[in-house]
Amino acid sequence: MLKQLKAVIKRNPSAFRIVAFGFLLRLLFTYVIAPFYFNRENIYLDGDTTSWMAGLYHMVYKGEFTMMIDREMAYYCRMPGYSFFLAPAFFMVSLYLKLFVSEAASIQPEMWYPVLKITAIFQMIIDSISIYLMYYVVLKTLKSYQAAIVAALLYASYPFIIVWNPVCYSEVPSVFFSLLAMAIFLRSEQKIWLAFAGFCLGFAVLNRPQYALLAPLMCIIFYQKYQSSLFRNLSKIVVFFAFFTITYGAWPLRNYVRFNKIVLTQDLRGYDCWNDDVIAFMQYIYSVKSEWNPQFTQIIQNKTVVFPKESYRTVEDSLLLEKAVYMAKNCGRGFSEWDGYWKKTIPIFDITGDCSSEIASIFNHLRKNQIKHHPYNFYVKLPLCNLNKAIFKSGLAGEVTMARRLGENLFYYRSLLILLGLAGIFMMLFKQETRPIAAFVGLFFVMLYGYLCFGTSPQCRNIEIRYFLQADILLLIPAAFLLARLSFVNSFTARFFPEKR
């Protein structure tokens, strides 16, 4: 194994210098910048981390993947991929406890810190490997050494993946396993490796469901590789998709067999704070405007709430809206679960004090009226506002620090790379040899951005930049293609990263 690695490094010395550079950047961010950027003591733990921790804990000690025991919806409110990713560090710490503390010792909540710390190290390692995977995918698809070097440099220094390296979230492994699936498929024609590539893409989906959109698009990569003998290689394509289906499909199959529910990804209603009342409010507000604040914060803090003029279409709708807001403030159990709620949290089984179902019913009714009477606002204006925000976002939520203020300026860099990527796709479509990968990246961008900005499900229109990370990273491929055509970029790569002949 070491001999093979040395041989690969010897064949690609420039690429591995970029990998080393990227790893140093990740170390620098994690151990020097991250504490100031996140402005918290534990840089490894964020809001959703505890859910994956709970899922793994219950899987190991209770024999079932769930966020909470004895709550059905908690069994499928999170996909299990990242909980599995936490498992190696979990078992390393568990083994240490059994060997040096007590054979009966188990990992309690206060012992999770070393698990998260080790996982962050794993993430830095695999994200550095992703730099080489990006280089390899571009080299194989564009047949351009300069473009591959530029893509590796772009990924190595891409701030919106570096920032997730220390945080125990599923962004880093989802990107790694998707790039690994593409690289394996492009390198090998052996069915055993194609099966592993299918497994990797399936595992990427179990980490981030957005990657499910890549599965049908892989047919374009198949065409690029097998266009002269597509039919003869049909069995290889079947193997890839079979193992993808087995890996990802085990999750919806488990939900159907175990609970007789069709849950393809996740159902957030398993969390108390995402009760029906909150989701219905979110669905309603996104039928009126593209942000749910300040209205949501005003509700939980018991302040006066004012909606856009579209909300006050008729006297009946206006009165219903005022009623729903009053109830949300006083008896909405989901609203009461959020930090900053002005009263005590409403207990889960408090039948008399919980009016969540009526709140949800009113907001759902008002949403239908908005769609019916303001279709242009709902189907065109708001989605375009979402798209504008997704591409040209320039601010960060949360407490403002100097590090975060500086980080906000990087959003302009992100927007520039997106525009370069889209321009690169346009140029690549005119060349037969680059058309397949251009179509692959372009369609993924359109599908993901379109679904999140224009979609109508509860997972849509809530614009967070990390939801677009997967498409943004693939856009680095056409961006690199465009940049590599510039003479000064070519001179730079030739001087500092010469191709080994």
Brief characterization of the structure:
The protein has 501 residues and is mainly alpha-helical. The protein has helices at residues 2-11, 13-38, 49-61, 81-100, 112-142, 145-156, 159-162, 171-187, 191-207, 214-226, 234-259, 276-285, 295-300, 315-331, 333-336, 356-373, 375-392, 402-408, 410-428, 435-454, 469-474, 476-483, 487-496. Helix 2 (13-38) packs across helix 5.
Mean pLDDT: 89
Number of strands: 0
Give the C-alpha Rg.
24 Å
Shape verdict: globular
Helical content stands at 55-70%
Q: Helix tally?
A: 23
The end-to-end span amounts to 24 Å
Q: How many structural domains?
A: 2
Strand content: under 5%
Helix/strand order, N-terminal first: HHHHHHHHHHHHHHHHHHHHHHH
Largest sheet features = none
pLDDT under 50 segments (min length 5)? none
Going by helix content, strand content and strand pairing, the class is: mainly alpha
Descriptive report:
The model has no long low-confidence stretch (mean pLDDT 89). This protein starts with a helix and ends in a 5-residue tail after the last helix. The protein has helices at 2-11, 13-38, 49-61, 81-100, 112-142, 145-156, 159-162, 171-187, 191-207, 214-226, 234-259, 276-285, 295-300, 315-331, 333-336, 356-373, 375-392, 402-408, 410-428, 435-454, 469-474, 476-483, 487-496. The protein has 501 residues and is mostly helical. 66% of the residues lie in helices and 0% in strands. The chain has two domains: 2-260, no CATH class; 269-383, no CATH class.
